[in-house]
Design brief:
Length: 407
């Protein structure tokens, strides 16, 4: 083929952004500036190394001081909008899903728990260091035999005793914790964990701030994962762990008390589905434009363009739905069925999007050198955690029919 007939390779930087409907334009100028600052950090400190961390299943603790310097912990408490908070998670996910998962476990679950349920003493002792990542936290809810049904099936037990006699005492100053937790993100290295347990006295659910170095706490990393390999998920066992009454969350007396917290974290995982789709589109479009097959770029072929348009459509629709959730949050009106619908529906769109992206890359789509294999694999974890696709679907189904199919 002669040179004049060869299709030219477009400049990716001059093509429309993946935010095709300009959702980011809804942010304030200060928020857009902060998002640009985050992008610069991710481009310099995360993007070049993320695949290597993932391949080695190593967590880059050395970046935490720089991440903390961005001052993005729990953005709503810093005066930012809920839309901005969601786009932060989407943007981190777009570069590395594992780092985004660390961020939301620590900030959106552990730190938010301190804000929501912590006593003034607990906040004074723990909040500043946790917000600035001088200490790290985990959220220990899921158990080896209980995931979706952990609210009713929780087996970890707490018994209140007198520290002087060791006998059960409803007014005692010490709790004894026994049980096991599984799939605990940050669990291998965290300084503290928020542990959920059932009170042996009355069956109610309690929350405890547990120093991970206490006697009786044992932690082991879950190996052989095919997703979120950088995240250090742990199996944790508690054997007669003694916890001071001062470290019980006084704001929690039942599992119902956790629902707003879990609703908010589910929103952030739904934002991860957005980031995952943006990442898949970024990689697939660049590959399709640059990869030459049959003497021309892959993007020249109609079926490739159709897949890219579908991927973009899914991503844009997902961003729009989550912008709608953010608007409801600003109004204090976002409820669990709405969030469950977003998490389930967008998880399905994400799966479709990353599968198309992997297909566009062909054989190169199954090696992490080209990023897409990592994006494809990590999507499976997002599809499952913070309520599986099926459970979230049934929560929404219960709301629109008035009939529960869960139990």
């Amino acid at each position: 083929m002669s040179a004049p007939d060869m299709p030219h390779t477009p400049d990716i930087s001059q093509l429309p952004a993946a935010d095709f409907f300009a959702v980011e334009s809804m942010l304030s100028q200060a928020e857009r500036n902060k998002l640009a600052e985050l992008r610069d950090f991710l481009a310099a400190e995360v993007a070049p190394y993320a695949a290597d961390w993932w391949n080695k299943a190593e967590f880059p603790a050395h970046i935490l001081p720089k991440l903390a310097a961005l001052e993005l912990s729990t953005p709503a408490h810093r005066g930012y909008s809920h839309l901005f908070a969601g786009l932060v998670i989407a943007e981190i996910t777009r570069v590395d899903t594992s780092i985004a998962t660390f961020f939301l476990v620590h900030h959106d679950l552990f730190v938010e728990s301190l804000y929501a349920f912590g006593s003034e003493d607990q906040k004074q002792r723990l909040l500043a260091d946790a917000s600035e990542l001088r200490t790290t936290g985990a959220f220990a809810l899921t158990e080896p035999l209980h995931g979706s049904d952990v609210a009713g099936g929780m087996e970890t037990r707490a018994r209140r005793i007198s520290s002087s006699t060791g006998e059960p005492d409803g007014g005692g100053d010490t709790w004894v914790l026994n049980g096991a937790k599984r799939w605990i993100g940050n669990g291998t290295f965290c300084d503290y964990m928020l542990v959920w347990a059932r009170d042996e006295a009355d069956g109610s659910v309690r929350g405890f701030i547990v120093d991970a170095t206490l006697p009786g706490v044992s932690r082991s990393r879950i190996e052989n994962k095919i997703a979120l390999r950088t995240v250090q998920n742990a199996d944790i066992v508690f054997r007669d762990v003694r916890i001071a009454e001062a470290d019980r969350f006084g704001g929690i007396s039942s599992f119902e008390d956790t629902k707003e917290l879990l609703r908010s974290s589910r929103i952030m995982v739904a934002w991860q589905t957005v980031g995952q789709q943006l990442a898949a589109f970024d990689v697939a479009r660049q590959y399709a434009v640059e990869r030459q097959q049959f003497g021309r770029p892959l993007a020249h072929f109609q079926l490739i363009q159709q897949q890219l348009v579908t991927m973009l459509g899914n991503a844009v629709a997902s961003m729009a739905m989550m912008a709608g959730i953010a608007r409801l949050q600003d109004q204090g009106a976002a409820n669990m069925p709405q969030v469950a619908l977003a998490k389930s529906y967008l998880s399905a769109r994400m799966r479709e999007t990353v599968a198309m992206g992997r297909s566009i890359l062909g054989g190169n789509g199954i090696v992490t050198d080209y990023r897409m294999a990592k994006i494809f694999a990590d999507a499976e974890a997002i599809y499952t955690y913070e309520g599986s696709f099926e459970v979230n679907t049934l929560i929404a189904g219960r709301a629109i029919t008035g009939i529960s199919a869960i139990s």
